[in-house]
Design goal:
CATH architecture of the largest domain: 3-Layer(aba) Sandwich
Largest sheet: 5 strands, parallel
Strand content: 15-25%
Structural class: alpha/beta
Helix content: 25-40%
Distance between the termini: 33 Å
Radius of gyration: 22 Å
Number of strands: 9
CATH class of the largest domain: Alpha Beta
CATH topology of the largest domain: Alpha/beta knot
Bound molecules: 6-chloroguanine
Length: 224
């Protein structure tokens, strides 16, 4: 997958995209990133990416032209990328949406800023608008990184163990069961005996019950 990022803070990305599993996915050529500084797509001498709102009021508005110019350059031979605008007004990101996005071969992420983005970006340039939750951040850069992290780990060949995808939280609408590792006893807190019983059918049944209990207590909404 190719991921283009349109941002006024390009330097925020490399440190995050150069660690851990995302870094490994890049090295394996499973994903490539193209980070664009929107100021490079302006045509005035001040390289302005925002301007005052028509109709007055406080706050600045992100201009449409730099975003349009940038998108024009990244449409490649294989066609147009899926264009996603990151703003708090978007549809909330969830694992289902992440899965759908992971199927595209090319996506472009526009990092909005909370004062607002010119409505013509939303209506004419973006295919969809995404938010990562009900709180306000200073810009769409951190949300873009959240989306990238969630999408990249679903790409074939990125995670070593296929099972780690099947049994994790939100797959099958359940939270995860409790995990333990050594030591067996830590400050008088012991691991549940069933886990050292060696009976894998019983262990699986126990885990399922735990996952259900946990989901019911913490996230009843996931059980519908
Ligand atoms: Cl995508 N952008 C901003 N600025 N704030 C947010 C968000 C996005 N998602 C949640 N809060």
């Amino acid at each position: 997958m190719r991921i283009d990022i349109l941002t006024i803070f390009p330097e925020m990305f490399e440190p995050v995209l150069n660690e851990s599993i995302v870094k490994r996915a890049r090295l394996k050529k499973i994903v490539e990133f193209h980070i664009h500084d929107l100021r490079d797509y302006t045509s005035d001498k001040h390289r302005k990416v925002d301007d005052r709102p028509f109709g007055g009021g406080s706050g600045m508005v992100m201009r449409v032209e730099p975003i349009f110019n940038c998108l024009k350059t990244i449409k490649c031979k294989e066609g147009k990328p899926r264009v996603i605008l990151l703003t708090p007004q978007g549809k909330r990101l969830n694992q289902g949406k992440v899965k759908k996005l992971s199927k595209f071969s090319h996506i472009a992420l526009i990092c909005g800023h909370y004062e607002g983005v010119d409505e013509r970006v939303r209506c004419n340039l973006a295919d969809e608008e995404v938010s990562i939750g009900d709180y306000v951040l200073t810009g769409g850069e951190l949300p873009a990184m959240v989306l990238i992290d969630a999408v990249v780990r679903l790409m074939p060949g990125v995670l070593g163990n296929k099972n780690s995808l099947n049994f994790e939280s939100f797959e099958g609408n359940l939270l995860e069961y409790p995990h333990y590792t050594r030591p067996y006893s830590f400050r008088k807190m012991d691991v549940p005996d069933i886990l050292i019983s060696g009976d894998h059918n019983k262990i699986e049944a126990w885990r399922r019950v735990q996952a259900l209990k946990r989901t019911k207590a913490r996230r009843p909404d996931l059980l519908r």
